[in-house]
Amino acid sequence: MVDSSPGAFVPATFEPAIGYTLRRGKKLTAWSDTFRPNEIGYRTVSLAKPKPAGTFRVAFIGDSWTFGMGVSEADSFPRRVEELARQLGAGGGRRVQAVNLGLPGYNTANEIAALDFFWERVRPDAVVLCPTSNDADSTANVLPNGSLTRQGVERDAFGHDHSLVFRPRLVDSYELRTRWRANFQAIRALEERLRARGVPLVLYFAATWDEPFAHALVQEAGLAAPYLVTPRALASPRWRNPRWGHGTAEANRLYASMVYKGLAAALGWPAAPAPSEPRADPPVWHSDPKKDWTGPADEVLAAATTKIPERYMPGLGKDEMCSGPMDCATGLTGKATTILVRRSPGATGLAVTLRRLPDAPSLLPLAVRVSIPSPSGETAAPITLTADGPAERRVELPLPADIRPGAALDVTIRAARAISAPGTPAPRSLTVAAIEQTGPPPQ
User: Fold this and answer.
1) Burial 280-307 (b: 16+ CB within 10 A, else e)
2) Quick one: 9-294 is in which CATH superfamily?
3) What is the CATH code for 319-438?
4) pLDDT tens sequence across 148-162
């Protein structure tokens, strides 16, 4: 954790929706680069003075891919777009300047909040929003040493009462679908605000995407902005730096050519020559009402969900099942967590076995609520762990009728309270011993 964010961050207490920025006022060495964050805490140009006359400013908002994790600021694709625009004489006689508000760990809510809050500082003439496939994850908290942690999240940007991190990235889960829908409703609202200001928006789907899902998100939200999707080949290991798993300097040059192509379509800039890598020349898309992407997107999600098991038992190799904060290998859980289980055909119920902590008598009796959210609401059941009787207790609840077989169940377990564990900041409340599906009773 410290290696991936070595004292680099400070909480954005001035606007909690932003989450955090970089530490300001001194040089930082992080992510294979040494740099000095600007006045508002980003690795980009100084914004201490008003935008110079004759400048066409493009604001880039995104996460670690937009930041350029593992490459220098000069090699990040926002700066490469600026360089390409200068070479091609774009900007209508004005100097094109990139302002990069991307930071590692940001999600869509953080990105839009940063743009809104710093609008008067940035004063963009165009905005490039760069979604990545983990933008449905919760924002992390900042530890006192400036590193990030998923512990202690009590209310995230999606209204959830604990952190959610979807390690499969794509899965046919009600929670994941709901969060992506919220993301693109927020993007649609941003597009409307920008349109009122006369500022065009371009979307660049960075990192690894399954194209039908990206198309479906744009179509459902009713976005008018042009957009591009990174070809999967350019997110392969060939184009990633080995330490951080993000784009190499060479890959960032190719990303820049794609983003420039989108800006040229939106702004009438001169066309760029074809990139040297043929796969780095994807089309610029606009939402097409004649093409319904719902079915192809559902197929992509369904295929990804086949990797999720139908039952959970603690053990190694189960991390993709645990989207909430917990130790997936042991089942040790904090105050609340969520576990993904693929609904099996014919199953009508869910049985969850919980185990009290042997060395935490002050927690007991402990009220626990197990639930499964769905479009129509949720199914839920209570259970209480006590100091006497068996260490394990089992609770059963019906499966939601509107979660189809083959989709993932978001099994959420919430304890009334938790305690801190010696030697770690992680809270703990109980152990999840098993989650199993049950069929109809015998006739």
Assistant:
1) bebeebebeeeeebeeebbebbeebbee
2) SGNH hydrolase (3.40.50.1110)
3) 2.60.120.260
4) 888 888 889 999 999
